[in-house]
Each structure stands twice: as C-alpha cells, then as structure tokens.
Amino acid sequence: MITRLQAFDLLNSKMTNKNLVRHCLSVEVVMRALAKCFKADEDKWAIVGLLHDGDYEFTKDDSRNHAKMMANWVRELGETDTELLEGIESHGWFHEGKLPKTQMQWSLFCCDELTGLIVACALVLPSKHLSDLSVESVLKKFPQKSFAAGAKREDIMHCEKELGINLSDFVQTSLSAMQQIALDIGL
Ligand SMILES: [Fe+2]
Ligand SMILES: [Fe+2]
Description:
By secondary structure, the protein is mainly alpha-helical. The protein has helices spanning 4-14, 18-37, 42-51, 56-59, 68-76, 82-90, 103-123, 135-141, 153-163, 167-180.
C-alpha cells in the first residue's frame, strides 16, 4: 500500500487551493478516528480520506470523473489494493446515483459533509478556534438549514442507519479528531 508520505505528496502535486487541502486533511483525520472505532485499517482509511477530493481542481467541470481521476493516479503509483482504490472512487459514485457499499465508504460519505459543517461552526465563534467549539453547538446548528447550507445534513444523518453511530457520537468523534490537527487546518 502507498505510504502516507506518497499520498500527501500526490495530493500536494495536484491541489493548490489551501482550503481544499485543509478539507482533505480534516477528512483524513476523521477517517482515521472512525477506522479506530471500527477496529479497521486506520492507515488505509486515512489515505482514502486524504485523497478523496484530490483531483477536484482537474474535475470541477467534469464531475463524472471526480475521484476516478485520483484513483487512477494512485494506480499509476503501483497501488493494487482494491479496498483503497474503490474507497476513493466511491466518493464520485453519487454522480452516477450509486450509494456507498462498505463501512469505509459510508464513513467517507458521512464525514465529508460533517467536516464542512464543523469548520463553518468554528468560523462563527469569536475566537474562530476549533478548541472552543462544543458538540452541543454543532448539534444546535445542525437543524438550521440556512447555516452552512452546503453541508448536506441528510448525508451526515446516514451515520445512524449505515454506521450505527448516533449523530451526537458521530459529531463528538469527528470534532475531537479535527481538534488534534487544528493548527494544520488553520483553526
Ligand atoms: Fe468531492
Ligand atoms: Fe470532500
């Protein structure tokens, strides 16, 4: 399997927007935390999270290729791990009306949107610091559809049925994970 360093170098060679890289780092750390909860392969889940949006600057006008292009770049590095490659590709499936199939893919699906909501919640705090954000305040903003409208609540809610984690615990796990890398993501 490719190393974290290879994955990080690949991401940085394809993505120039700092905020997008921060989003990828957020999803990486949350995927690692979720893998730990499920006693799954933490390094593999983390790499899938790190790379899921890595081709965005190349595919933003060609959404059907989103995530597929990244999976191909990873293949070109010699990667053959089907779970890893399909994990990345699964991020683009919704464009084809396909749903995630595995626990890893559902984790990516749900936490992708939640990381955006958490960032938005932090940015409206006076300090703008993730360390000052509570689970309660994320949960309070959750039903406010006009707040961070791009963070699809219905996608996040799949954590309950598909992952068996209630929303409050899902927010707790994700927020704690992101707090560990607050400096790296500028929060
Ligand atoms: Fe994406
Ligand atoms: Fe994403």
